[in-house]
Structures are given as structure tokens and as C-alpha cells.
Amino acid sequence: MDRLRDAYRRLFSLGEIENDRRLQVLFFCLLAIFILDFNAISYVAQSATQHHREVGQFACWPHFQSCGSWFVLKATPFGYTYHLVMMVVFSFLALSALSGALGFWTRAHALMMPPFLLKVFYSFFLAFDGETNFRYFHLTYVFVLLLLPEKKFYLKMTFCTLYFWAARIKMSGDGWIAGRYFTTLKFGLPLVPGVLVPFLTNGVVLFEMLGSWGMLTKNEQLKRWLLATWTAFHLYSVSLIGFYYPVRCIPTLWVLFWGKPEPARFRWERRFLPGAAFIAGLFLLHTVPYAIPKGDPKYTLEGFMYGAAMFDANHQCQSAVRLVDAQGKVIAQIAYKNRDSANRCDPYTYWFGVKQRLCPKEPNGRRVEWTMVHSVNGGPFYKIIDVPDLCVLTYGPLSRNAWIKTPADGAPVVGYPYPDVLIGGELLGPVPLMADTPQIIPFGAQPWLMEHAIGIGRLYQALWLLVLAAACVILTMRDESGRIILPSISRFSGKT
Q1: Of 159, 155, 131, 126, which is closest to residue 143 (Cα–Cα)?
Q2: Where are the domains of the chain?
Q3: What is the pTM of this model?
């Protein structure tokens, strides 16, 4: 048994946790987030039960569209098996916390592993619920802490990678470059005058791009300023989205970066290679939306959920279906209007939901006509979908789906949006969604920024690549003290 335990400790580098107070504190922070998330999964947001499969109230990931066949558990009032599984999960988490508090880190680690694997399976195979962006800010850190060697270095690298990509998604369109994401909201950006919004949003893009890697600096004053700014950034976000996101980010930020700077340094050794592969995988996942040819992820959302992208653009939409019989008579009509900018109006989600509810139940001869209009950042409503029968459509998870049109494909303009809200649009009541003329007029610096948004975006993207290259060079050329050591000419010429 001792040999097995020692092999387990070596395999997962548990000595790093046992000998580092910072990693131990982070362990408990991440465990607490497990409890918060499984509380929602077990009670508030049940979406993977047999009942949901039977009534069609679920959505599968594009890469696993048959996930409903796995919904075999029953929740009240239809049974208890779902809750019994959650009971077991909570028991693992509670015993993991107790073991860690008593200093039994091998046991604490082993007990956290099943909830981690279950949450990964639930988040990326069972539930396509729009929460994956937030779960990246938990599961990626847990992955590093549980599975990888050189844990502290790669936990910091994970932070840098996630926020570096958060900057990248803001570099296209006028949502952040012209501040249109927030100036199209009914109440604007809290505490910020409208004319200043574009300057603040561009500052956020630059800060996320430079301040992410800047957290690895050896300059103590700079690091303190960056830590304070990151903290203020997350505290301010509470005014927009509540506790859900900051509670995942602030504890990790403080635990990893509080105190004197510790030089972050990559070494070409075997222990560093698993973590390097993990960071490379994170980068590749975030490139999925950009790798789909002839697409526009802001309108099609194709590949979008494979990255930790949040607040990319302000979305409004309307999805309407008509059930038509064999004689062409309309039997029923259903329309869904979205005025919540945080709801990204993903065509796949609407397609999957309607297909589960209507298509399997309809006899031959009946069809489901479907139209969808979509506005981004207060721009025109484009009719991106207009198909005679939703039920015959198929969706490719990593390819361009031609039945989703974009402005570049010639999607027609059908109207213009009114100002919306971040969340809670249904509480506005029966207010109109669409007008015949533009209702949101650019002001201040916005007209100039909108006119030059493409050029500014390309400039940001070039800078983004330069920052990435510089970060790679610095991380691989630091010595133990944190100084940058450039290779000497004699090293390559053979001179001594």
C-alpha cells in the first residue's frame, strides 16, 4: 500500500502541494467553487435528467449531439437517483476538505479527482448551457493543480493564457474598439459617462493583453499595481454580472500573485513538457472560431463556446418557428425575443432545442419553418436564417454551416434594435424589439472609431502576436534570479 501511495504521489507531483502553503490555500479555494457549482447542478440548474430528455428540454454540445441518451438519472418528483449521485459527489468534496485540513494531501487529492472528472464530463459532454466560459476559470486551474508537475508555474501560465485570449476576442468589430457593447445598453456602463466608454474599453483590451503577462514581472512595485488593478477590474464586474464570475477569479488571483514576485521561468526539462502541452492545447481551443473558413463567429457563434470568451459583443435576436401541415396551413407559431446582451443568440442552441421538441413528434408532411434575425453591437438586424424546414438541417461542430448567413453572405437587413439590457430583458414587458430606422446613434469618438475599427483591430492583433512572442522569449531565457540571459555569439559559432 505504501508503494502504491508513493507511486501516486510521484505521478501527480503531490510533494509540491505538501510543501507549498500557497498551493494548499488554492486547493481549498478551488474546492469551494466545486461546492458552489455542484449546488447549482444538483438543484437549481438540473438539465441532465431522464425527464429533460423526454420533454426535450436540454441542449447537447455540437460535438456530442446524442448526449440525451446518457440522461438516465431521475430527479424529483420522478425519482431520486440524480440526487443520490449528487450526495456522493458532496461526500467526496467534504472528505477531501477534511483530509486537506488534517494534512493528508494524498487522500485529499484522490477525493477531489472524481468530482473533477464528473464536472468535466458534465460541462463538455452533457450540458451545453452557456456556463462553460465561466467553468474555464475553475476547471483549468483544477486540471493543473491535480494533474501536472510544476504546478505553481503553470497555474500562473493558465491565468495569463485565459486573460490574454480574453483580450484577443475583443479585437474584432466595434463592440470594444468603439465601446458599442456598452453604449447600446439601456443604462450604459455603470458609473462611466457615455463619452468616456470607448476610452475605457480600449484600455481594458490593452490591459488584458499586457497586464496578463505583466503579472509574471520581477518588479515588485509594478506587480502590486497590476494586482490592485486586476482586483478593481473584477470587483467592478460585480456591478454587471454579480458574484458568479468574480468569485472564481479573485481568490485565484490573490493566492497566485500576492506577495513578492517569484520569477516565472520555463526550462527545457521533462517535468515542464506536460504543462507546455496543456497551455498549447488551451491556445488551440481558442483558435477554433477563427479556424472555421468563411465564418463570422459574432453572428454564427460557430466554435465560439470552445474558448473562455466573455463579453465579446452585445447581442439581440428573434427566433421564430411556424409549424406547417402538408397543405401549407400554419398550425402553430412560436417566437422568442432576446433583449439580453449576455445571451449570445447562438443559432445552434435554438436549432437543437426546436428539433428536440417538435421534429421527432411531427408526422410526415408537416414541417417547421424557421427564421432568425440577429443584431450585434446595436447594428442592423440581419436575417441570418430563413429555411423552409428546420428538421432537415444538420449542424457541423467544426465546419461552416451554410444555412446560417452573415452580412458578408448577403443576409438582408430587416430592422434596427432599441437599446437593450445586460440581463433580465424579459422583465421589460411587451416593448418592441425592432424599429424601421436606427435607434442607437454613435456619439463622441465612436463614429471615427467605428470607421477605423478594422484597422485598429488589425493593429491590436499585430501587437497581440508581438506580446506573445516576447512572453515566450522572456520565459525561456530567464535565469534563476529572473534576469534575461541572451545566448552569446560564441555559443553558436563554436568559439570559447
Answers
A1: 155
A2: 1-129, 146-286+452-496, 310-441
A3: 0.91
